Amino acid sequence: MNDANGLAVRWTEVGVVTGILTFTVYPLLIVVPMPMAITVALAAAFGPLLSVACLGLYHFVGANRKTVTLQIAAVFTVVAGSLLNTMLVVQMTVRHFMRVGMADAAGAENEQFVQMAYLAADKVQLGLDISMDFYLTLGTILFAINMFRHPRFGRVIGSLGVIVGASLLCFNLYTFPVPPAEGGSIDLGPLLGLWYFVVAIMMARSIGWLRKELVER
């Protein structure tokens, strides 16, 4: 196995680990109450983990066949991870200062002013959320298309990725400028997360196949 093929295997291994961590952190942030320091650490790690996991997916899929659309998928999902980190950090920062402002406010009038300022500033993270979803869904669709001819994924998992990614993209366009989860529409984010989690598990089960495949070239 040459250096390039060995690198593909190592990237796949890293992608598996970070992919599983990414979609372990996701439900924890949603449903598990945690101390602020732990919440901040997990939220800040979420975006970088997603970016690295998608780079691992790129190397795994690309070991079979590299295409321009696959490279675009990698770029878009890495950007999505960066926007996700920015969105979560901005969200936590705004909400922290809102709580501080409410605690310092004296009287109903001041509290109303702080609440109005918070609602205005909070719209910034909603815009970042939509931007992140655009990049992530487009990247997902392109990854899924490249899975159609991959021997370890195939048309079923590829088609599911296209359907979920395209549906989430359409919901974002329909509910703009409010994300689907905030606008009372169907939130397909958890379903997209489940699809990526299944992909990570399939990659984990395919590392032996990948090593054998690359050695035989």
Please explain how this structure is put together.
By secondary structure, the protein is an all-alpha fold. It has one domain (3-215). The protein is built from seven helices and no strands. The protein has helices spanning 3-31, 36-62, 68-104, 108-147, 154-175, 189-204, 207-215. Helix 1 packs antiparallel against helix 7. The radius of gyration is 20 Å and the shape is elongated. The mean pLDDT is 86.
Structural class: mainly alpha
Shape: elongated
- So how many helices? 7
Q: Into which percentage range does the β-strand content fall? A: under 5%
Task: Report the sheet with the most strands, covering strand number, pairing sense and barrel closure.
Answer: none
Percent range of helical residues: over 70%
Number of strands: 0
Q: Which stretches are poorly predicted, pLDDT < 50 over at least 5 residues?
A: none
Rg is 20 Å
Number of domains: 1
The end-to-end distance, rounded to whole angstroms, is 8 Å
> Mean pLDDT, as a whole number?
86
- The H/E string reads HHHHHHH
How are the SSEs ordered, and which strands pair?
Blueprint: H1 3-31, H2 36-62, H3 68-104, H4 108-147, H5 154-175, H6 189-204, H7 207-215
Helix pairs in contact: 1-2, 1-6, 1-7, 2-3, 3-4, 4-5, 5-6
